[in-house]
Amino acid sequence: MVEKRQPIPVAEAVHRVMDYAFQAKKEHVSLTQAHGRFIAQAIRADHDVPAFDRSPYDGYAIRSVDSQEASSQHPVRFQVVGEIGAGYVYEDVVGDYQAVRIMTGAPIPQGCDAVVMLELTQTFEENHQKYMSIKRPFEAGTNISYKGEDVQQGAVLIEQGQYINPGVMALLATFGYEQVPVYRKTVIGVLATGSELLEPGEALQPGKIRNSNAYMIMAQIERAGAEVKYFGKLSDDLTLCIENVEKALQEVDILITTGGVSVGDYDYLPAIYEAIDAKVLFNKIAMRPGSVTTVAARNDKLLFGLSGNPSACYVGFELFVRPIIRSAYGHTQPHLRREPAILGADFTKPNPFTRFVRARIEYEKGKLVTVPSGFDKSSAVSSLATANAFIVLPGGSRGYEKGMQVDVLLLEDLQGSEWPWDNIEKSYR
Ligand SMILES: Nc1nc2c(c(=O)[nH]1)N[C@H]1C(S)=C(S)[C@@H](COP(=O)(O)OP(=O)(O)OC[C@H]3O[C@@H](n4cnc5c(N)ncnc54)[C@H](O)[C@@H]3O)O[C@H]1N2
Ligand code: MOO
């Protein structure tokens, strides 16, 4: 008689995993390697940005007081006493009715308090001296980008744990971080089990399938911000599996296996956990897909036994592995973001267990609408590629109808996904 497993609620399973949450160590990487990492320390501005008053335009820096009488009938003329490009400093003090030709980004010369755009000036020469005239007055402060208008010294610009995106890269460079403090990437091992598995380069044979889960999981690991160590696939041989799991565990922070967690004759994970003295945290969750997701711990290392079924495996990763990765990088909200959405199609399947339906979310008339992204069995692989969310259908419900409000959990591949565009003109008006 096979032991009957008692399913635990999804939230309970998440808590049991998160009891093992840890903080990643810190390391420094060069700025060019920092994109996509998580910053390990809050970044505070050690100077103002801009660091000096500067010109936002090409034109002439003047003393605004000199321009007050200017009109089209009586233009005011200024002696052009110098020229200053971005990156240089005009050393002299500018006097009455003097102007300095200034380029965008150059510091405002001493004595000046306004910049007149080039297009609003006329230039001429008299006795080898350059002059510039204007036909209207300019107030003090016209066209000056003030020191500190963007960032004030002392401000916290990047919180600890923030993802380093291109904008964060710009800030790090602005403040001179040639080396960036980041969290060391959690190293996660991946091992696929099953005698039916072929690697992608192998020709299909009767009864065999290609190992898709390993490649999916490795991408999920990288998307979540951790580092992959791939240990390949193993056939259903208990001794071989025990040896390889033990060996892999030495080399990683966390080990993920796929397959072999159910109750079949060759579902060896329970025996492997026993053999390596790992404590099983749970082996049945009241959810679909992924009910067989099993998590064990040996000392402080977690072993995730994800289902062999691709959709179950995918969901198991996002719900249980992702938050462990993110919390290691200081995230207090490491779980998938939840949003309300309108169900765009009937979903009549009864749900004794909480169901995580692979889905697409789209905007329709300003509302977030969600529909299943395809074939919904836990063995499905086709519906994963287009999914950008999970619809959460609580356990006990008898099915849902189009128009009802549901919760969706947002996946993070939005950058690569195609969002609906009406047309270029409408989007950029
Ligand atoms: N008598 C019962 N049978 C099953 C139960 C149950 O409770 N009682 N649970 C079912 C559920 S639910 C699931 S989910 C699966 C889980 O099975 P395992 O996680 O043990 O995985 P396997 O049996 O090894 O494989 C399941 C399925 O997935 C394919 N597979 C395996 N590895 C990969 C891979 N790397 N890439 C792609 N596909 C993979 C495998 O060939 C099987 O078709 O058990 C149910 N059975
Ligand atoms: O674990 Mo299975 O995926 O519930 O369907």
TrEMBL record:
Organism, per UniProt? Lysinibacillus capsici
InterPro entries, sorted: MoaB/Mog-like_dom_sf, MoaB/Mog_dom, MoeA-like, MoeA_C_domain_IV, MoeA_C_domain_IV_sf, MoeA_linker/N, MoeA_linker/N_sf
Names of the cofactor(s): Mg(2+)
Tell me the ranges covered by the MoaB/Mog domain, including all copies: 189-327
This protein's record includes keyword Ubl conjugation = no
Enzyme Commission identifier(s): 2.10.1.1
What's the stated role of this polypeptide? Catalyzes the insertion of molybdate into adenylated molybdopterin with the concomitant release of AMP.
* Protein name per the record: Molybdopterin molybdenumtransferase
Family, similarity comment: Belongs to the MoeA family.
Which superkingdom heads the taxonomic lineage of this protein's source? Bacteria
Report which reactions are catalysed by this protein.
adenylyl-molybdopterin + molybdate = Mo-molybdopterin + AMP + H(+)
Keywords for the protein's UniProt record, in alphabetical order: Magnesium, Metal-binding, Molybdenum, Molybdenum cofactor biosynthesis, Transferase
Which pathway does UniProt place it in? Cofactor biosynthesis; molybdopterin biosynthesis
